[in-house]
Amino acid sequence: MLSVGLLTGTVVVSGAAPETANGVPALGDAAWWWSVGVLALQAAVLARWGAHPRRALLTVAAALPALLVLGDVIGVGLLAVMVATYRAVLARPSRPLLPTLLGAGTLVALGVTAATLRGGNAVPVAVVAGLMQGVAAVGPAFALASVVGSRRDALEALARTAEAQGRERDALVQVAVERERTAMARELHDIAAHHLSGIAVMTGAIGRQIDVDPEGAKVAVAQVREQSTAMLRDLRHLVVLLRDVDAPAETGGPVRMETLVGIGDLVARAQASGLPVTLETTGPVTELAASGAVGPLAQLAAYRVVQEALANAARHAPGARCVVRLDATTPGCVEVVVRNGPPGAGAAPAHDDPGYGLVGMHERAELTGATLRYGTTLEGGWQVSLSVPASVTPGPGDGPTTSEGQDR
């Protein structure tokens, strides 16, 4: 009811100084009450017809001719027209809004022109005043709502784009995870199901033959051993298949298993390539790797985690000092830690798209029952830690050692 308040204040001021306005009704007379009713109607239309901004705009604009009894203060009725115009433009209608805006401006111009003529002004003056008021009632509100609406649409578009990119990223990660899991499950099924089904059949026959046909039982035992050996060989080949595809085993050559011991060679190659990295070993790491206390898949997972962490350090923190630590002093596990400092002075980190290195680390850790942790350090570097389970308690070690070679 701001318009009613403005009208009341204007009437009070004009009553004190009648020469300031022409045709302004006195407070409490019939023209004043009529104007209050029209302004209240405008307010009711704005409050109830919010879902129909076009209709509300035309209705409040049509009330302007009914306010001609206000004379020079007819402008108090323009406030509702401005609010209705702002709402109509901000609603972003599907149909063009120009006809509605022209209609509202015309109604305002007619009302102001009639009020101006009633005040005794000349026709040209009244027409010009009406046109100017019509444009002033619609134009600024239209411009403001257009700017606000455009900004709102831009923010909504950015939010939708970010949400779509997040969904796409999650989908790509999920596809990568599912593809790796499917490959692992398929290979394990093809190898284990083939050999284990044959072993189950032969062991059932051995139970019946051992008393009635000892020689046949011996032959069956040899076949079980042959099947078990073949399955072990195929599982080792599977481990090789789970390695990076850029370093396949030589065709026809021996199967190379990446182990905890091989991390030393990995660090040496990194040193040779210029990465300032050292290796610290604490406890009987070599003994655990050779005894089988840490399974082949777990050793491969540790090797690949170190390999990926060193590659990330070289790519994202060039020139940073790196430390690879193997700790077998804690009973039941081997701690593998790769820690690098912040990038060296003047070094520019790579700005490539994020890959799936951490996803691969998580998958290897879950596959082997290991625990993976990673994050930034207090110095601004990065640390990756993998706790690999071991089936035996490590014995006393010879103390920490450091890899040979000078840092570069």
UniProtKB/TrEMBL annotation:
Ranges for region Disordered: 387-408
Superkingdom of this protein's organism: Bacteria
Domain Histidine kinase/HSP90-like ATPase: 301-390
SUPFAM superfamilies, alphabetized: ATPase domain of HSP90 chaperone/DNA topoisomerase II/histidine kinase
Enzyme class: transferase
EC number(s) stated in the UniProt entry for this protein: 2.7.13.3
Listed transmembrane segments: 31-49, 56-84, 96-115, 122-145
Protein name, entry field: histidine kinase
